[in-house]
């Protein structure tokens, strides 16, 4: 078992007075020293109370799922004799109502584009490597939402 920590710090900026809306900009600090400027999503809390240039929790969730998947994929691809030279993912999360009618990220769609160092696997092998990465990913295993992996040329249904 391991422990993973993050520190979140928000402080009221300026004298907004009682009953007035507050800003949502805050800072995430991680044990390795990294700091990330964060805010609520502008889709949830409109500017000026949110800061669109900062990372919002929904984006961070999508990035965490995509990153975890990628790290396992890199490992499994290398072990299978297909080391990766370049990996890019234009991941997206869809916000909607879950089965209980609550607002949630209901789907995360990964769109990895992989360029291999030497030996490129066939499509079936590449899909199997992504499936293996998906099942190994700690983040995916922690979520109830659907996570799809679409390779180039795959079609996907429109978000619900």
TrEMBL record:
Pfam families: OsmC (PF02566). InterPro entries: KH_dom-like_a/b (IPR015946), OsmC/Ohr_fam (IPR003718), OsmC/Ohrsf (IPR036102), OsmC_Ohr_Peroxiredoxin (IPR052707). Residues 1-25 are annotated as: Disordered. Transmembrane segments: none annotated. This is Organic hydroperoxide reductase OsmC/OhrA.
